[in-house]
Design a protein that fits this description.
The protein contains two helices and no strands. By secondary structure, it is mainly alpha-helical.
């Protein structure tokens, strides 16, 4: 009977030791899983950070392009205005020369010009 009790005690000790080993194994597994999760989260955050930077860079590039296009359009408009001013000045000179050639006074020529080009 004593041997049986001793045998049961040995079995209990073996089971307890096995239980402790299992607990340590599960602890290690949980630790490894937690580490894996942290790595995945870090990779996700890094990826999101890169994407955010790419989006900001794309926005900045688009804004710079839009600003450039606006500046170019403004330059083109000023150039067109200058061309119109030169054209109008040339028309005025031609009109004045024609008026003088016909003997029209400068005051009358200016009055006619203003009336037609008001």
């Amino acid at each position: 009977m004593e041997q049986m009790g001793a045998g049961l005690g040995d079995i209990a000790n073996v089971m307890a030791a096995h239980g402790q080993q299992t607990a340590r194994f599960l602890e290690k597994q949980n630790y490894l899983r937690a580490g894996e999760m942290q790595m995945q989260q870090k990779q996700h955050m890094d990826t999101m950070s890169v994407r955010r930077e790419e989006m900001m860079s794309a926005k900045e590039t688009a804004k710079a392009l839009l600003d450039f296009e606006r500046e170019e359009a403004a330059k083109k408009m000023k150039l067109e205005e200058k061309k119109l001013d030169v054209e109008k000045t040339n028309q005025m000179l031609a009109f004045g020369q024609t008026a003088m050639a016909r003997g029209v006074s400068a005051a009358d020529a200016k009055a006619w010009w203003d009336a037609f080009n008001g």
